[in-house]
Amino acid sequence: MFEVKKANNHSHRRKNGSIGYGRGIRINGKKINKYFSRKTDANDWYIKMKREKELLEAGIKTQLVPMKFGDYIEEWLEVRKAKNPISTWKTEQERLNGFIVPYFKERPLHQISTGEWENFLDNLVTKLERSSATRNRYRTLLHKLYQDALRKNFVGGNPITHIPIWKENHFTLSYFETKEDCEKYLVHALREHVAAYVFGAISLNCGPRMGETLALRRQDVDLEKRQIHIGRTVERATGNVVNRTKGRKDRWVPISDDLYEVLKGYMAIAFHKKPSDLVICYEDGRPFSENTLRKIHIRICKKADLKPIRIHDLRHTFASHYMMNGGSLYDFQKILGHSNSKMTERYAHLAHQHLASKANVVSFSASKLNTETRPRLRLVHG
To answer: Which candidate, 32, 165, 25, 9, places its Cα nearest to that of 111?
Structure first.
């Protein structure tokens, strides 16, 4: 049985001279008192706690399991480590232990309010000079861990839900803007190593992530159906191949005519000698590492006299040209493997720019009419 006893309103004068208003309630033999600066806040809190008690008595809600924020984070990270890529787990660990845990370590998880979390997130921007995008990443992380806490009955609700997402700065892309630059890149990639050439051709024509391309096997390339299966990736933190992608969804990406010719010749010749079934590897079957490919990429850009974009920007190059050539956002999301449309929409402005350049495809006016036949324009006064 739950015993609930209404406590009388009481107030007390604080050391600074202000008056604090308190309410109390007893639930299951435990008395809970809380003080507020305003009487209305004290009454609102009491009504909320009374409702909590009613839900507990009705069996609709179970009593919360007390848990300190710091203890919960340790437990949560252990579970995440077993289920997620190690690189993702390390990022979450650094964000939590580096910024969040020091502030809230000893606080009960269920007592940290929405207002406190919103102030913390906003201070990342205003005081620590982090970007709006970084603030939003922290918000997403907190929302995720509170959802897991909610399922385990450590909290009665998710305080992050009502915190607004800040508008982020316009996503700026770095990519090869012309077809000539892309072809120049591939010419110099072939001079470096045939595997680097094939890597560049796949990246520029299909847009997979670097780890996904390095994990490709012979059986993942279907020349007959002209498609590549993306279902594995090289984990950046360990260098190991794992049977999942960043979005955790397998996908098939189409092979263009030019890429088909590249892969047809490469697959016919290279795999007669290779002891490995990896597509991107040395002649003796050793895989290329991400660091090695980055160094090769830097040399290619320098020797080809191209602007020094990142190797990941080869994916952006594919994405940008896909949109500028009229590709649909829906198909684009499937090809790139984005888990939601928000990532895809970062490229939407390129499609808008492309459409703006087509404004004069259909254009009518009366400007060529002579003065005798041109109708007079009248000003209509309201």
So the answer is: 32
Please answer whether residues 131 and 169 qualify as being in contact, where contact means their C-beta atoms are separated by less than 8 angstroms: yes
Token pair belonging to 378: 């009248």
Main-chain dihedrals φ then ψ at residue 346, nearest 5 degrees: -65, -25
* 259 contacts 202 by C-beta, under 8 angstroms: yes
Domain ranges across the chain: 10-57, 69-151, 179-357
Q: Answer for the pair 202, 296: CB distance below 8 angstroms, yes or no.
A: no
CA distance 346 to 300: 28
Q: Tens-of-pLDDT digits for all 382 residues of the chain?
A: 333 334 445 666 655 666 778 888 877 666 778 778 888 888 888 888 888 777 766 666 566 677 899 999 999 999 998 888 788 888 899 999 988 999 999 999 988 999 999 999 999 988 888 888 899 999 999 999 999 998 888 887 899 999 999 887 756 678 999 999 999 999 999 999 999 999 999 999 999 999 999 999 999 999 999 999 999 999 887 888 888 887 777 899 999 999 999 999 898 877 656 667 899 998 888 899 999 999 999 999 999 999 999 999 999 899 888 888 877 777 777 888 776 666 666 666 555 555 555 555 565 655 555 555 545 545 444 4
User: Hey, what amino acid is at 380?
Assistant: V
SS3 call for 102: helix
Distance (Å, whole) CA 300 – CA 194: 13
- CB-CB neighbours of 30 under 10 Å: 9
The answer to whether the beta carbons of residues 218 and 262 sit under 8 Å apart is no
Between CA 99 and CA 91 the distance in angstroms is 12
Running DSSP on this structure, what letter comes out for residue 277? -
Query: Cβ(99)–Cβ(140) under 8 Å?
Result: no
| 222: enclosing H helix or E strand | strand 221-222
Q: What is the pTM of this model?
A: 0.63
Amino acid in position 30: K
Domain spanning 179-357: which CATH class is it, in words?
Answer: mainly alpha
Q: What angle do CA 285, 291, 296 make, to 5 degrees?
A: 80
Strands 251-254 and 233-234: unpaired
